[in-house]
Amino acid sequence: MRVAVIGANGQLGCDISKAFAENGHDVIHLNHDVMDVADLNASRVNLTRADPDVIVNTAAMHNVEACEGEPLKAFQVNGLGARNVALISNQIGATLFHISTDYVFDGAKRAPYIESDPPMPLNVYANTKLAGEYFVRAIAKKHFVVRVSGLYGTNPCRAKSGSNFVNLMLKLSKERDEVRVVDSEVLTPTFTEDIARQIVVMCNTERYGLYHATAQGECSWYRFASKTFELSGARVKLFIAGPGEFPAKVPRPKYSVLENAALKSLNLDVMPHWEDGLQRYLAKIGALKPGP
Question: How far apart are CA 81 and CA 54, in angstroms?
């Protein structure tokens, strides 16, 4: 099978490319510098030339604050870009995997969201990603819209200057005596390698539609930091940040945990618990403390 990965040099795209290659598939890497999804004609040329059976679109403008400052650009990439890829996927007969986000919800439910829950985005980023979902679901005949949450991976995150939350905590633990982290936002941090494996598994079904694909369980950013320090053996004091200590510049959901209900209904859910993913990630980057 030929698989074209849009954004193949990104944090998630790298792991998706690797996962398909390791399963014997022919992977076409459409990196950010050669593939601009907002450009319909250029995208058509690239994807037609690639002639894939499957397209995985990881391209997005996902710096939340940047989206708020440039809403038109965010819509061109996250909304119209998704539309462009959906149109082309139909023209070449490819199955489309489109990556979306937990941020399409406002967090008011305070219980894990399933695919049938109505979205209520709070910011420009989330609104434009939801628009992209709707374009894909309305246009692409063979599509999987895959919502993810709290991504971190071994490959650099372009929107976060090449870092991620875990790496930041490890860095701060070496530079400071104490670290303060918010406890008011609850999510499911997810290792990108696990999402990549899940997408490969989903190629075994033609039950197209909307899916949640995150690690199992949930935690606050504070709990995530605490587990990171515990597993890495970091000697640093961790405290809960006080109200308003780190004021958000953009509204974000206080609770964005997703339930992989659709995957579970098909017995296709292979996502591990978030603590398992974190432990494997720390081992991979050489930051896991030695066992007893």
Answer: 17
